[in-house]
Predict the structure of Tyr recombinase domain-containing protein.
Amino acid sequence: MLRYTEMEVKETRKRIKSSRGQSSWFIAERNRLMIMLLTDTGLRISELENLHSDDFTERDIFISRGKGKEDRVVYTSETEIEV
């Protein structure tokens, strides 16, 4: 499994934040949220790609057909809830 240091995660978030002037606001916010979800919850990229709005509740995310074709629940942090 590939692991990122806290510094690498912060640098990635910083670069996304600074790219807001280079792309539309929506795309920059989408990218920021995707990185936050991947780093804060441990979601796999394939799980992120398959998410739908009804998979989200106030405090968690329902992952259907994750690794091993099993369903699971991933809990979100206060940061994702604010976004």
Remarks:
- The chain has four helices and two strands.
- The radius of gyration is 14 Å.
